[in-house]
Amino acid sequence: MERTRRRQEQENGSEQKQEQKRGESQQCPECESTKLAKSADGTELTCEECGLVLEQENIDRGPEWRAFNHQERQNKSRVGAPTTNTMHDKGLTTTIDWKDKDAYGQSLSSEKRTQMNRLRKWQNRIRTKDAGERNLQFALSESDRMASGLGVPRSVREVASVIYRRALKEDLIRGRSIEGVATATLYAACRKEGIPRSLEEVAGVSRVERKEIGRTYRYISQELGLEMKPVDPTKYVPRFCSELDLPEEVQAKANEIIETSAEQGMLSGKSPTGYAAAAIYAASLLCNEKKTQREVAEVAQVTEVTIRNRYQEQIEAMGLTG
To answer: Smallest Cα–Cα separation from 181: which of 131, 152, 148, 138?
Structure first.
């Protein structure tokens, strides 16, 4: 077997060398140039000097079947769903359908139904055969539930699951609740992907207190070396303005207030949600679209005292009088 394999490798190598020599010695019949190039799909050989097409090979490398809508394409496709980190087994294991019907859509007999129930039970046991996989299955299901509650895209869920897998591999979950670590990884994924979700909003969909989420997040980000940039308050402005039903003019003015005050170094150490809320409140006053401090505070989930303090700092930075 080893001798046969070596002989095949030698034959393939000699064929590649011959093809390379043939390409180097080949010339353009029009301008006699040796600068020949193949197209990106490898179907055409053209001369770089005069543009003459020397060889043309139209090969359809797609499937041999045709489909005219999504349903036909799904039925004829020979591949399954792509792998995903949001499932503990990455979607590679088989799943037994809960419908007690055969391939023709006919109901199964009582004996077959009993057999299928036993197979489903053993299938679930096999998929989570050890404690680590059970931990991962529960954590990823919790992360998916919270991500749906926050309305974040699928990319955030993928990043959160990757961070959780790293934490599990580094044994950072020992002594901490699974829900707490799952929530902290989801919050870290939101920050990593630039999706503005405050710690209060994440705690609102979690079964863990805000204090524990913040403590776990700091520990995981430090141990895993997650480089997190400070949250930009301007990313909260569009969502808060939309919930307050404020026009584009207020949104633009709030961004201007944040940028002007941030240039003076006033943003350091301040809560981004509170800073954005105060800028929106100030912009609504300047644009005659007045909203009360209580209304803005409820949307941003901050206190009215925070808005008043940040508001005074911002109007002084803008050179206005309150």
So the answer is: 138
User: Tokens representing 82?
Assistant: 């792509």
Residue 11 pLDDT > 70: no
Predicted pLDDT at 132: 77
Contacts of 222 (CB under 8 A, 6+ apart): none
Pairing mode, if any, of strands 53-56 and 36-38? unpaired
Q: Which amino acid is at 2?
A: E
Quick one: average pLDDT of 37-46? 79
CA distance linking residue 21 with residue 15, whole number of Å = 10
* Contact (Cβ atoms closer than 8 angstroms) between residue 321 and residue 311: no
| Burial (CB count within 10 angstroms: exposed 0-12, middle 13-18, buried 19+), residue 22 | exposed
- The structure tokens listed for 37 are 């190039």
Inter-residue contact 245 to 291 (CB < 8 Å) = no
